[in-house]
From TrEMBL:
Transmembrane segments: none annotated. It comes from the Bacteria. This is WxcM-like protein. The lineage of its organism: Bacteria, Pseudomonadati, Bacteroidota, Flavobacteriia, Flavobacteriales. Residues 1-129 form the Sugar 3,4-ketoisomerase QdtA cupin domain.
């Protein structure tokens, strides 16, 4: 599977912790940042793969599951700690679901939005993987 858990440095303090995301933490140049919030627990987000884009998903609050596929195997990763992010490399199918109440998913991306980079149908994803 073309994924990795990234430890996000944190500064612990009795008044509350601080997580720090700097260039050394993210293994690509950051070109886009967005976040998902107010997602109903019965809803799914994602449902696509990218040809070249790399993403780092961080659960700022609450928890959610990331269902992943590389075309051969499937894996589910639960994200629920704001100092651990999931790095998803290109050609990895992803669906996000099982959002807890108040969950917020921060997404840091290696590219700006480009529709042509998306593979939105799973059958086309499998075809793309088999051609690679």
């Amino acid at each position: 599977m073309n994924i990795e858990i990234i430890e996000i440095p944190k500064i612990e303090d009795y008044r509350g912790n601080i997580a720090v995301i700097e260039n050394e933490v993210v293994p690509f140049e950051i070109k886009r940042v967005y976040y998902l919030f107010d997602v109903p627990s019965s809803s799914y987000r994602g449902g696509h793969a990218h040809k070249t884009l790399i993403q780092l998903l961080i659960p700022l609050s609450g928890s959610f599951d990331v269902m992943l596929s590389d075309g051969k195997e499937k894996q589910v990763v639960t994200l629920n700690k704001p100092d651990k992010g999931l790095l998803i490399k290109p050609t990895t199918w992803r669906e996000l679901g099982n959002f807890s109440s108040g969950a917020v998913c921060l997404v840091i991306a290696s590219e700006v939005y480009q529709e042509e980079d998306y593979i939105r149908e799973f059958d086309q994803f499998i075809e793309h993987v088999n051609q690679s």
